[in-house]
Amino acid sequence: MIEKTITVTVNGEVHTRTVKVHRTLLEFIREDLYLTGTKEGCNEGECGGCTILFDGKPLNSCMMLAMEADGHDILTVEGLEKDGKLHPLQEAFIEVGAVQCGFCTPGMLLSAKACLDEFPDASEDRIRKEIEGNICRCTGYNRIVQAIQVAAEKMRQDTLIVNKP
Ligand code: FES
Ligand code: FES
Question: Pocket of ligand 2, candidates 104, 109, 110, 111: which has the most ligand atoms within 8 Å of its Cβ, to mutate?
């Protein structure tokens, strides 16, 4: 077997494609689906630039084969925006100035989303722990952590408004 047909849901859209068995999920996302927001850095599972959410959990897509994603749900940075509106994390990264060269930003946003999905009241220590697999060579991390805290507060307020009797 050198090829396999897979069906994956990416950013809410179902894709059925035939892939070579050695194709990585990162190559599939960038080169077959043209979702180039997911970055290729080290290609060795070290930098976090290729982070996606795989069934809601952060994953280095360079370390998984595309065929292993068959039947699974993927979120890439392109799927964070909803109806033309940026995700609160994206807004906060801009507002706080947490983006410099931007190479780490897509992966960082997805790790941050996974963190806040699991820990809406995440402490600074928890945030730092959850993004430790994402390397940023520019910002020194402080603004990134601050942006995640700003987004967390906004998301908590939004939840209160939605749940108001
Ligand atoms: S490109 Fe995947 S971890 Fe660096
Ligand atoms: S903003 Fe440049 S690597 Fe993080």
Answer: 104
Round the average pLDDT of the chain to a whole number and report it: 96
Amino acid found at 21 = V
Domain boundary among 26, 60, 79: 79
Residues 92 and 158 both lie in one domain: yes
Among 29, 57, 79, the domain-final residue is 79
Number of domains in the chain: 2
Same domain, 72 and 119: no
Q: Which of 136, 76, 132, 146 is nearest to 104 (CA)?
A: 136
Report d(CA 29, CA 7) in Å as an integer: 13
Structure tokens at 108: 């960082």
pLDDT 10s digits, 4-52: 999 999 999 999 999 999 999 999 999 999 999 999 999 999 999 999 9
pTM of this structure: 0.95
78 lines ligand 1 (CB under 6 A): no
Q: What is the residue range of 15's domain?
A: 3-79
**Measured from the CB, is residue 103 less than 6 Å from ligand 2?**
yes
Ligand 2 lined by 9 (C-beta under 6 Å): no
